[in-house]
Amino acid sequence: MHGICTIANDRVYDQLVALLNSIEAILGTEMPVCVYPYDDRTERIAAEIARRPNVELYQNLDSIARWDGFARSAWDAHPTARERWRQIGSTSFYRSGSYRRYCAFDGPFERFLYMDADTLLMSSPEPIFNRLDESDWVVYDFQHRDPSHVYDLSSSKLAELFSRERIESEIFCAGFYASKQGLFGSDRRDWLIEQLSQGEAEVLYPMSVDQSLLNYMVMRSGIPSYNFALALSRTERTGNSVTSSHFEEKDGIVYDRSLRLTYLHYIGISSEVFTRLCAGENIDFPYRETFLHYRYLHEPDRRPKWTTKPKPYNTPPILAERLLRKLGLKL
């Protein structure tokens, strides 16, 4: 059995609705979806999930506690992570709920595709699931071009663990990947924590916590990663990030040079932007029309209507609020 999974709480309610609607639009209502709770703020998303018979909210507390503990042990071994988190105003374990995506290794699907809540499905993921016949790890992204958001490149130990060739070809984005149930059993988890505790934790990048640790888990375990972005020819592959300005929107689908995207990732756009937009504030951001299409796919009458000119999402007030929050001066 295979399915799609994501991680969410009420803070990303509007994004989750859009994601679920995009999956339904592309694959119908038969594709099972599992939502892993980022934290206990799940009242709104639980009500939404209850209306969708193919979607479930993960409730295996033992699994959640197991992966919470694993992540905490991994980062407790890092020499500077706590201090770096304190410098940005985080007095607790940084983005602790983000590791719950790892619950997919215990979850209901023998094969799964994980998608961040700030993504939208644009075409069938069948080629990705099919590739799992030959690979245990399948991705489709260009994160390998920027390893600085995965590993601490200043660490001397990094080159001891992974060659430059592996860094340039195996790194992946933790927002979209396919894998298999049971890939990280207790023995493998214990072994990874042992290696991290013996000094290898220094290679992790503390500001991209779940992505850094997951890359380490896969690469240190010697699990080959198949990346469609590297395997496909230049004329066959597409981009996926809203940071690309040349995509074209048409009828709820986004195209790259006339090629249909597999997924669209609203990376770098804060969840508060989506919340404010859906509350009626006329905020503009890349490929906003596509997001609105799926967010209000089943309730078009509730879609906001504006008569004023939209303002950019990255205006100084929003950036200022984000800074205040990092400094712990704004909830």
Features:
331 residues; alpha/beta; Spore Coat Polysaccharide Biosynthesis Protein SpsA, Chain A; seven-stranded mixed beta sheet; three-stranded antiparallel beta sheet; 13 helices; 36% helix; globular; disordered C terminus
The N- to C-terminal Cα distance equals 41 Å
Helix content: 25-40%
- The geometry reads as globular
Gross CATH architecture of the domain at 2-231: Alpha-Beta Complex
Radius of gyration: 20 Å
What is the CATH C-level name of the domain at 2-231?
Alpha Beta
Average pLDDT rating: 94
Strand order of the largest sheet: 3-2-1-4-7-6-8
Please write the string of helix (H) and strand (E) elements. Answer: EHEHEHHEEHEHHEHHEHEEEEHEHEH
Return residue spans where pLDDT drops below 50 for at least 5 consecutive residues. 326-331
Q: What would your notes on this structure say?
A:
With 331 residues, this protein is α/β, with parallel strands linked by helices. It has a domain of 230 residues: Spore Coat Polysaccharide Biosynthesis Protein SpsA, Chain A. Helix content is 36%, strand content 15%. It has 13 helices and 14 strands. The chain has a seven-stranded mixed β-sheet. A three-stranded antiparallel β-sheet has the order 9-10-11, with no helix packed on it. Helix 1 packs across helix 12. The longest helix is centred in the N-terminal third of the chain and has 16 residues. It starts with a strand and ends in a 5-residue tail after the last helix. The C terminus is likely disordered.
Concise description?
With 331 residues, the protein is α/β, with parallel strands linked by helices.
